[in-house]
């Protein structure tokens, strides 16, 4: 699922951030990330998103059961040189949530 680009959360006190509701089934994992993850690749947003999607969709089944391992796999796939080697001006947040 994609959402529209908006101002950073908390930046404007008078503005309400867009929200999305999902119905997750047991065993499903949702990945939430900041745009900094895509920007740090140095690629176009579309190309970086394709890499992110491929990393998540192609993760081995055993990793999909462990949110921490899945997040590590996705980070290593999207930023193979690691967070330290990438553009430090961009923040990176990746949250993996597994529903039981």
From TrEMBL:
Sorted UniProt keywords: Hydrolase
Keyword Hydrolase: yes
Residue ranges constituting the PPM-type phosphatase domain according to the UniProt record: 4-99
A GO molecular function held by the record: phosphatase activity
PANTHER family registered for this protein in UniProt: STAGE II SPORULATION PROTEIN E, STAGE II SPORULATION PROTEIN E-RELATED
Protein known as: PPM-type phosphatase domain-containing protein
Native species: Streptomyces afghaniensis 772
């Amino acid at each position: 699922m994609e959402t529209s680009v908006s101002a950073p959360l908390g930046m404007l006190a008078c503005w309400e951030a867009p929200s999305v509701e999902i119905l997750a089934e047991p065993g499903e994992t949702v990945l939430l990330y900041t745009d900094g993850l895509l920007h740090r690749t140095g690629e176009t947003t579309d190309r970086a998103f394709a890499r992110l999607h491929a990393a998540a969709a192609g993760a081995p089944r055993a990793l999909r059961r462990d949110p921490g391992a899945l997040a590590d796999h996705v980070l290593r796939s999207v930023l193979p040189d690691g967070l330290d080697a990438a553009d430090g001006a961009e923040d990176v947040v990746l949250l993996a949530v597994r529903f039981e």
